[in-house]
Amino acid sequence: MNATVHNRYSPAVEEPMAAGFIEFIGGKLGRYAQVGTQRYWTPLRVLLMFAVIFLGLAYLSKAYCLESVLPGAGLSGAGSAGSSGGAGATTGAGEALLNWSGNRQYTAACYSDTIAGYTQFSYNFPYNVPVADAPKSPVLSTLFGWIMYWISAMVGVVVRLVGLQIAPPVVYFAVTAVTLSILWMITVRIMVDLTGSRVWDTLLLTCSPVVIVHAFTHWEILSITTVVGALWCLSRQHFGYAGVFIGLGISAQIWPVFLLLALYIIAGRNDQWWETLRCTEFTILSWAAINIPVAVLFPHTWFRYFVDVYLQMWDWQSGFALLIRETNWLGFDRATTLNLVTVGMFSVLLVMIIAVIAQSPSTPGVPEVTLLLLVAWLLSTKEWSSQFSLWLVPIIVLAVPKWRLVFAWGAVEAVLWYVQALHMLGKDHLGLPGGMLDFMLIIRGGLLLMLVWVMLRDNIPHIPKTRRRAYRKHTWTAPQSPQWEASLWDFSASADRSPATCTTSRRSSPGDSSP
Q1: What is the H or E stretch that residue 122 is in?
Q2: Distances (CA, A) of 468 to 143, 270, 360, 460
Q3: What does UniProt give as the signal peptide span (predicted)?
Q4: Is residue 404 part of a domain?
Q5: 462-490: pLDDT as tens digits
Q6: H/E element holding 267?
Q7: pTM of the entire structure?
Q8: Pick from 185, 197, 255, 155: which is nearest to 10 by CA?
Q9: What is the pLDDT of residues 338-361, one digit of tens each?
Q10: Domain assignment of residue 494, yes or no
Q11: Is the dihedral of CA 428, 432, 436, 437 positive or negative?
């Protein structure tokens, strides 16, 4: 049986993980199945339903850190309400406090920067503060958190009017979670378009275990939505609009810059620069529109973020942390040394990626190159915060939709979060040893490398070098395997392809007014 039925890919044919579940609920599609005739339970609505379910699980995973208590309730222990670890220190007299007693943020693995970071906001503009209190996030993320603070303050007034005793950080988290959920639903909707005939691959996004543990750990969904929006624009040859989304994404987190870098690598391979330069132009404009006003009015607090990034030491899940825990080597005890090694390692990996793409007989798509760059950066960076793994989910879905492997990686990420939380308790509180955390990090790294290897294996055939030279004259053409065509775009336009597989080859003329 073909993998597609009525031009829609059926995961029951090629995905053993999906086949077992489909057999359980009634079996795979038959030859005369009426695909696409369901009026209500369309794939989009089913996927949105699963998205809501997993977002609910994500909220429940943080629920134990959302307990409110009245002042004077006799709390004790590190991280209790009103302490520096409880994010409730700025609540007014008589207001409910946040209960983080007994290190519950670690014992229950419910820690969230959204809760802990509540105290950094006030009614004042977040950059109108002393340099020592400068925001720890890029401008757009900081402004997002500040807007959530204002909305939660108004919601908090209603909460108090109805007589509910809820700590302000809890209200703030709830408002933020609802807003991020809306953005996530928009992301799912866009992904349905991007996956095209492989629409059910979007389940890898909506049902990912990474969503449960990290959807509300920080504001990562904000940057993910911008990246997916940029990919959607690229699939429809709107390079200017794609640049706008990339610029917004970089203003929220640094990682969307790898999407732009992927365009440059692909453009360099095919000597097609106009579209990439157009995208870069709008990227700079949108980034400047967000950052320049803040940089001009509050230069010291704006620049402080970049200083903090430079001075930051290794994170718990970075490769440097693993090396230090296992060897007790102190060679990375200075930020300058750490930064030089990080830049050097990523530069080497970048050269290797460019070499692989240059030698491939067919040009990989934007998601594939972005995945290579993102994995290279995460493996070489000094800062791999747990929630950064959420960035990988939509890129992996588009680049290498192997269900069993993707879900296995997601499950390891979820377990890793709990292992890290218990390790952070420390020896005095019977925390897990560093060796267990390092073991999980090695498994996670191995699975990511396996995903990359599978992607390269299926998209870059092993053709002798003498034959590869013949392919260099070809324009961007996706591999012929229908398994991958839904996630590949290139610059050679083809009008008869679906939106998800459409290429990005229309050369915009200098006089073209559309972005």
Answers
A1: none
A2: 49, 14, 7, 11
A3: none
A4: no
A5: 443 333 333 232 222 233 333 333 333 44
A6: helix 257-270
A7: 0.85
A8: 197
A9: 999 999 999 999 999 999 998 888
A10: no
A11: negative
- The reply to whether 87 falls in a domain is no
The span from the CA of 142 to the CA of 149, in Å, is 11
Phi, psi for 11 (deg, rounded to 5): -65, -15
For residue 113, the one-letter residue type is D
Containing structural domain, residue 8: 1-37
Distance CA 295, CA 192 (A): 38
Residue closest to 379 by CA, chosen among 349, 339, 413: 349
Burial of residue 282 (number of CB atoms within 10 Å: 0-12, 13-18, 19+): buried
Q: Indicate if the pLDDT at residue 218 is higher than 60.
A: yes
Q: Torsion angle of alpha carbons 97, 102, 107, 113, nearest 10°?
A: 40
Total Cβ atoms within 10 A of residue 458? 15
97: Cβ contacts below 8 Å, ≥ 6 apart: 68, 69, 70, 71, 73, 75, 81, 82, 86, 88, 91, 167
DSSP 474: S
Q: Which helix (H) or strand (E) holds 299?
A: helix 299-311
Report d(CA 448, CA 428) in Å as an integer: 33
| Domain membership flag for residue 246 | no
Residues in contact with 10: Cβ distance below 8 Å, sequence separation at least 6, in sequence order? 3, 4, 28, 29, 200
Q: How many helices (H) and strands (E) does the chain have?
A: 21, 4
Domain count, the chain: 1
User: If you write DSSP's letter for every residue of 361-392 in order, what string do you get?
Assistant: SS---HHHHHHHHHHHHHHH-S---GGGHHHH
